[in-house]
Write a structure and sequence with these properties.
Elements lengths: L2 E8 L8 E6 L2 E8 L2 E6 L14 E3 L2 E3 L6 E3 L5 E2 L12 E3 L4 E7 L15
Antiparallel strand pairs: 1-10, 2-3, 3-4, 5-6, 6-7, 7-8, 9-10
The chain binds FE2/S2 (inorganic) cluster (FES).
FE2/S2 (inorganic) cluster (FES) binds next to loops.
Length: 121
Amino acid sequence: MSETYHRVVQASDIEEKAMLPFVVNRWPLFLCREEGIVHAIINRCTHAAAELAPGGKVRRGSVMCPLHGARFKLESGECLGGTGYKPLKLFPWRESDDGWIEVAVPDEAPGMEHLPVKALV
Ligand code: FES
């Protein structure tokens, strides 16, 4: 699956612990920063398809889903706590010389395996 980098936001606009949602080439994702490190992660929980941002929380190296509280590691997307939910998809990113965060998303649209039907709650 080929992918392309897209400019998303100025790096200086991502505050510590903030979760900023975007849609990039039809892929919903959020950018966050913890201990100075930026993460680009799909904005859809693998449990029941809730959006993680806005409403989720970033702390201690993980993001917590606002709907039922599942936590996922920022570095790997792995679900914590033994629930067995699938890991979150992570996106490669880079910072340009002029301070933009550029995120690589697949050129193809996301499929149902990436964006399950949203929970009816
Ligand atoms: S939808 Fe995220 S924990 Fe249930």
